Each structure stands twice: as structure tokens, then as C-alpha cells.
Amino acid sequence: MAKITASVFTSHVPAIGAAMDLGKTHEPYWQPLFKGYEYSKQWLKDNTPDVIFLVFNDHATAFSLDMIPTFAIGTAASYQPADEGWGPRPVPVVQGHPALAAHIAQSVIQQDFDLTIVNKMDVDHGLSVPLSLMCGQPPESNFKWPCPVIPFAVNVVQYPVPSGQRCLNIGKAIRKAIESYDEDLNVQIWGTGGMSHQLQGPRAGLINKEFDAAFIDTMISDPERQAAVPHIDYVREAGSEGIELVMWLIARGAMSDLNGGGKPTVKHRFYHVPASNTAVGHLILENNL
């Protein structure tokens, strides 16, 4: 059977992608941030999965305000980098895993979660920046990501958005789906977005280090308690865009300790401010199978 071996959590700030694309990673402003991912890039090389299930939010690229699915799973064979207004990022096309994605969709829907099936979409910085941070820029001689990716888009842009509890529970359902897939696959689940930040209004530029640290602590030690935190707490303490953190709970819900196994091992934890007026958080957990 397929199994989830690890979860990866990271912010997906668009300016991080621009810094990489424009060769600014060694500049004084950016160097401390990218140094925090050096361990992670080596870890991924040493622990390359067969498939990455990547939870992210679309930024009005694949889905406009005309149609906003709460949870959408990509079932296509490939996904083009999106043009977000200044041309597509110079990154590889994302190769999908249609068979596993279709199986997950079938299983999760049968567990009474409503998913939107997406057979064609472009993917924006919400998905490509995490891949760039963890994989680096692939060389021209082998211009591809290290494995197929299943995109899982969550609406955290237009209210109403899913609760933390709903996200944790769908993570559990995704784990059950993956473990029922009849092929020996090593799968990682990535939760992206956050941390504290607000992009508009009188509180634009808000960063709350204390909230961010407490969120990571609780998500590691007591994810059920973190899942019970109401939306208003995220908005009040972490800014209007801080609600993206509920997507981390999907990846956390898929870990073994919430499904009868042992506590995951913390392999790496990193936090940095600022990155384009945003707090950046990063965590790697390995399942104890």
C-alpha cells in the first residue's frame, strides 16, 4: 500500500519566488531566509518521495471570484506555471499523478467530504514557491521537479472559509485514502501558506511572532487543540491573511499519531521575519511508521 512518510510545512510568499528567479538569494536581505532552507533541500534529496500531495491556496489564478471551491483536487497529468500578471515563473511544468489523485478523490468523497475535481488548471506561486524552496531551481539538463505532485487547493481567500477542525478532519480522510491505494508509493503531504501577515488596510504589515511560535508549538504537540481555534483568533492575532495557516492542519491531520500511530519526529524548524512584510515559517515532520 501507499504510505505517508513525512509532512512539510512552509510559507509561500510570492516575493520569495521572485528573489530566486532574479538571482537575489545571496543579497543581505534574502540570505538569512534561504539559509533556513539549506537543511530542507538536502533532506528532500535524501528522502525524495514518489509523490507529493501539496496543499495550497490559489490566488485568483485557476479560480476567479466567479467560482470558488472550498476544496479542489487536481487530477490532471500536468499543470503549467501560471501567469500572475508578469509572466509565468521560469520553473518546470508540474507533473501530476492522475491515478492516485482520482483514487483520493473517490475515497475522500465517499468519506462525506465534498471535493471539486479539477482536470485542468495552471498553478501559481502558492504551489511553485514551496517546490522552489525545497528543491531549488532544477538545472537545464534535467529541468523537472523531482517527483509528481497532486495539487490540493483550499479556499482561504473569500469567506466563508473552512474551519481548522474541518481541515484537520479532511487531512485524516486523505491519509485513509492514500493508505488504501494498492501500490507501494512513498507519499509526502505538504501544507503551505501563512504565517502571520496582512496585506491591506490599517494593519498592513502586521507580524505576530508570539502567535506564530505558539501555533507551531501547538500544531506539533496538540493539533486537535489547534484545530479548535476559531477563525476570529487567526484574523485578530495573525492578520487577515493569517487564516492561511488552517491549511497546515490538513497536512498535520494526515500524520500517524492522529491515526493510531506514534508522535512524528521534528526534523527541522525555521522561522524568519520579514520576507516582503510577511513572517515565514517552516517545519518538517517525519512519521514514525
Tell me about this structure.
- It is a single chain.
- The protein has 289 residues and is α/β, with parallel strands linked by helices.
- It has a single domain, classed as LigB-like (Protocatechuate 4,5-dioxygenase, Chain B), CATH 3.40.830.
- 33% of the residues lie in helices and 18% in strands.
- It has an 8-stranded mixed beta sheet, with helices on both faces. A two-stranded antiparallel ribbon has the order 4-5.
Number of helices: 10
Please state the second-level CATH architecture.
3-Layer(aba) Sandwich
List the strand order in the largest sheet: 6-3-7-2-8-1-10-9
Q: How many domain regions?
A: 1
Give the overall average pLDDT. Answer: 96
Report, as a whole number of angstroms, the end-to-end distance.
13 Å
Number of strands: 10
